[in-house]
Write a structure and sequence with these properties.
Catalyzes the transfer of a phosphate group to glutamate to form L-glutamate 5-phosphate. Belongs to the glutamate 5-kinase family. By secondary structure, the chain is of the alpha/beta class. It has one domain: Acetylglutamate kinase-like (Carbamate kinase). About 45% of the residues lie in helices and about 15% in strands. The chain is globular and about 40 Å long.
Length: about 260
């Protein structure tokens, strides 16, 4: 874990389960604490890009819908409303700590196209140069099946590659990767370090995530695979306590650490 003590640029990915209550409404206390920690880390000289889920989930909550829409149009409509709410909160909260944010809404097409990808990289670099914090989400309002990443775990790994990050931190609602399903087996234990992502790990990773999210541990394994293959260590950890970010950057063992190749 000491390899993270001297990082200069990191990507932090936060999931819907961390940003919202079980009702789908925004978890304001949780978001405020996350913003405070990121602001402090940026003050220390580390550049941070924040990949945030939650647009559809927050939109569902704001609209008062009982369940997440299952059709594309419903998801897109909820995302347009939720994304406004998310960015309003981030902009207001980061401003309280003296930081400016910039919004990036990305689809797979933007990364696959050479010219678009180069423009994205340039925009990221200039945003950092201006001292602003990039906040990234998938462009759910326009994305259709052939141009979506499908989950922000993979998107966070792609962003980490684009900006040549020193580390990727994926915040979720469990403590890390377990050797068994912790919901079913009391003997389940955290796997502290993973040096190779194998098929066996995917088999024990389990299924889908929270009610209002899209991912699960499998998508986090996929993200870790993308990032570590290009030399970016990845940590999957509990986002319920934002101070865990400090602990990771100080070299302490938190969650599951995927070593870079």
């Amino acid at each position: 874990m000491a390899t993270l003590k001297d990082v200069k640029r990191i990507v932090i990915k936060v999931g819907t389960s961390t940003l919202t209550h079980h009702t789908g409404k925004s978890n304001i206390r949780q978001i405020k604490k996350l913003v405070a920690v990121i602001s402090d880390i940026v003050n220390s000289g580390v550049e941070v890009a924040l990949v945030t889920s939650g647009a559809i989930g927050v939109g569902v909550g704001k609209l008062g819908l009982r369940d997440r829409p299952t059709n594309t149009a419903g998801k897109q409509a909820a995302a347009t409303i939720g994304q406004c709410e998310l960015m309003f909160m981030y902009d207001k909260m980061f401003a309280e700590f003296g930081h400016t944010v910039g919004q990036f809404l990305i689809t797979k097409r933007d990364v696959d196209n050479d010219e678009c990808r180069e423009n994205l990289i340039n925009a990221f670099e200039k945003t950092f140069e201006y001292g602003a914090i990039p906040i990234i989400n998938e462009n759910d309002a326009v994305a259709v099946e052939e141009i979506v990443f499908g989950d922000n775990d993979s998107l966070s790994a792609i962003v980490a590659k684009l900006i040549k990050a020193d580390a990727l931190l994926i915040l979720t609602d469990i403590d890390g990767l377990y050797d068994k399903d912790p919901h079913k087996d009391e003997d389940a234990r955290i796997i502290p370090v993973v040096e190779e992502i194998t098929e066996h790990l995917f088999e024990i990773a389990g299924g889908k995530g929270s009610k209002f999210g899209t991912g699960g541990m499998i998508t986090k394994l996929q993200a870790a695979q993308i990032a570590t293959e290009v030399g970016i260590p990845t940590i999957v950890m509990n986002g319920g306590d934002s101070d865990n970010i400090y602990r990771v950057l100080e070299g302490h063992q938190v969650g599951t650490f995927f070593t870079a190749k």
